[in-house]
Amino acid sequence: MTRSAVVNFKEELKSQLEMLRKELKEVSTGCVQVGSSAVLVTGATGFLGVFVLAALLKQSPTGTRIICIVRAKSTSEAQDRLQDTMASYGLSTLLSFESTSVLATAGLELPRLGLSSQEYETLLHEVGSIFHCAAQVSAALPY
């Protein structure tokens, strides 16, 4: 009988987070230019998206508008979900709803990303960069 190695999940997570932070820093450096259009982030309440959003909030020039599409029934519920996610990773001090807009959606897979016609038209005219971090995650699906 072979013994499996003991995994220290806390250390493993810490290591993975540090690696992700380094990669995000490399990717996000210089990706948003002064005077550019708004930046759209999908999946900001997920593991990858929250760190992409944090990197954008830290490194984007002052005045850059960041728009997050969050699955929720209302804008206030979407804002609460985003705040809770940021807080759970110790990133809540970065979030400001003065520079970050949150749109509620029933699902990105729906027509117009699940947004109203007006919200969708606004995105079409304002967004210059997209960070698509949303994913369908389910232990029951046969990926």
Give a brief outline of the structure:
This protein is of the alpha/beta class and 143 residues long. It has four helices and four strands.
What is the helical fraction, as a range of percent? 25-40%
Q: Return the structural class.
A: alpha/beta
Taken from the alpha-carbon principal axes, the silhouette is: globular
Number of helices: 4
How large is the radius of gyration? 17 Å
* Largest sheet geometry: 4 strands, parallel
Can you tell me the residue ranges where pLDDT is under 50 for at least 5 consecutive residues?
A: none
Mean pLDDT: 84
Number of strands: 4
Strand content: 15-25%
Cα separation of the termini: 31 Å
Q: SSE order in H/E notation?
A: HEHEHEHE
Q: Largest beta sheet: what is the strand line-up?
A: 3-2-1-4
Provide the fold topology:
Elements: H1 9-28, E1 38-42, H2 47-59, E2 66-71, H3 75-88, E3 100-105, H4 117-126, E4 127-132
Parallel strand pairs: 1-2, 1-4, 2-3
Explain what this protein looks like in three dimensions.
By secondary structure, the chain is of the alpha/beta class. The chain has four helices and four strands, in the order H-E-H-E-H-E-H-E. It has a four-stranded parallel beta sheet, with helices on both faces. Helix 2 links the parallel strand 1 and strand 2. It is globular and about 60 Å long.
